[in-house]
Design a protein that fits this description.
Length: 418
């Protein structure tokens, strides 16, 4: 019998461990994706080959154009890699501009390409061109072996560029300056990303006013928590301790309001906020959530478990209802208040529907609405979105760590009858 109980206990522990691991998988996937420069968790893009020059010249003209010369040619190379790009040097200068799509310069680690030239490069310039057409070239160090095929590595230093929009780079420029006008051969141009990278978190906090979204959500959530703790407790105290005509009818109305979908209530709420002139303000986000039906119901059920004899003793000692509520009921209801606080905070912080309907300007967005704005060139930027989601989840984790002991004690006390 003892062996059977031990087996059942171990089985329960194993099942709970498996469930815990499964529940943590989405969180782990979110965090890992936030360190990816491009792509997603199942398609991590560490490097992109911009061109190996095997395409016909007609297609290459759509992806690149020469610098310092009027044309370029592809010839058979002697590096056993098929076609290579041949550039003529005019007035000591040559190079190419390559299409890279839409790239954030801060995520680029370096460029590599095979190069062959019979003379020493006097100056090498690495340049970028953004979506607005602004371009900037800066002298950059390059490693190569003159006179033979070698792989050149060009490291990118984003802080050196002062372009207005370095987050949306369309072209990269490789510009060479020589003493003499000789041939230059290039092959296998590859862009390599920084991996893992923290740039996604930096971008999240700097762009799209995400810090403002966090502040708006914090203000709204804190106001909702304070409102529910104060007003729901006061209403619950009346329902739990006082006798008056129509009490059960009013409480039934409170409970029935929990069954009405938010989509039904949003129209009268919107019209009321419009009448008050609160649309696109924090007032519109705060006012509807300072008292909730669930908060009233939850606190009433908890207060009813507190012995009524404590109230009677306080009345005998001369205490009024306010003192009984603040000095006796509220301190004894601390576990329930902690549960209500974290539930209200999580619900308010994660709310998307109400802020989406009641606000329109960028300054009034909350964090959940802001998460929907993390796209680039009509595509979802998954790494930045996951970084933003990780940042957005930090306040909830902090709140839970603060109130976890109260939540556990509230669950235990709620299971014990006074």
């Amino acid at each position: 019998m003892k062996t059977k109980k031990t087996f059942i206990a171990k089985l329960n522990i194993f099942i709970l461990t498996v469930l815990l691991i499964l529940s943590l998988i989405p969180l782990v996937m979110t965090v890992i994706t936030s360190f990816i420069p491009e792509g997603d968790l199942f398609n991590i893009t560490k490097e992109v080959e911009l061109s190996d020059f095997e395409l016909p010249s007609f297609f290459l003209t759509k992806k690149l154009f020469p610098i310092g010369s009027e044309k370029f040619d592809t010839v058979d190379g002697d590096n056993n890699s098929g076609k290579v790009l041949q550039l003529d040097i005019k007035d000591g200068i040559t190079g190419i501009m390559l299409n890279v799509g839409d790239v954030d310069i801060k995520k680029i680690k370096d460029f590599t390409f095979d190069i062959n030239t019979g003379q020493k490069i006097k100056v090498f310039y690495l340049g970028f061109k953004d979506v607005e057409g602004t371009q900037e070239f800066i002298p950059t160090e390059i490693t190569y072996v003159p006179g033979e095929w070698s792989t050149a590595v060009v490291h990118v230093k984003p802080d050196r560029y002062s372009m207005p929009d370095t987050e949306h780079i369309n072209f990269v420029g490789l510009k060479f300056e020589f003493e003499n006008n000789e041939k230059l051969f290039i092959d296998n141009v590859t862009l390599r990303y920084r991996f893992p990278t923290l740039w996604n978190y930096k971008n999240v906090l700097q762009q799209n006013d995400f810090a403002r979204y966090m502040l708006n959500s914090a203000i709204v959530s804190v106001c909702h928590v304070l409102g529910n703790l104060i007003f729901c407790s006061m209403v619950a105290y009346v329902f739990a301790r006082k006798k008056f005509r129509g009490k059960e009818v009013l409480f039934a109305i409170v409970l029935s309001s929990m069954m009405i979908p938010l989509q039904v209530k949003i129209i009268p709420i919107f019209k009321l906020m419009q009448f008050l002139g609160w649309i696109d303000t924090l007032y519109a986000l705060i006012a509807p959530g300072v008292v909730t039906s669930f908060g009233i119901f939850f606190m009433r059920q908890y207060i009813e478990q507190i012995p009524f004899e404590l109230d009677q003793s306080a009345y005998v000692d001369g205490a009024n209802d306010f003192k009984i509520f603040t000095k006796i009921i509220m301190p004894l209801s601390t576990p329930a208040l902690a549960v209500l606080a974290i539930n209200t905070f999580v619900a308010s912080w994660n709310d998307l529907y109400m802020p989406l309907i009641l606000t329109s300007s960028n300054n009034m967005r909350t964090v959940q609405v802001g998460l929907a704005t993390f796209n680039r060139m009509h595509q979802v930027a998954w790494p930045e979105l996951m970084a933003a989601s990780s940042v957005a989840g930090i306040p909830i984790i902090i709140i839970f760590l603060i109130f976890q002991k109260k939540i556990i004690s509230g669950m235990v006390e709620g299971a014990v009858k006074y």
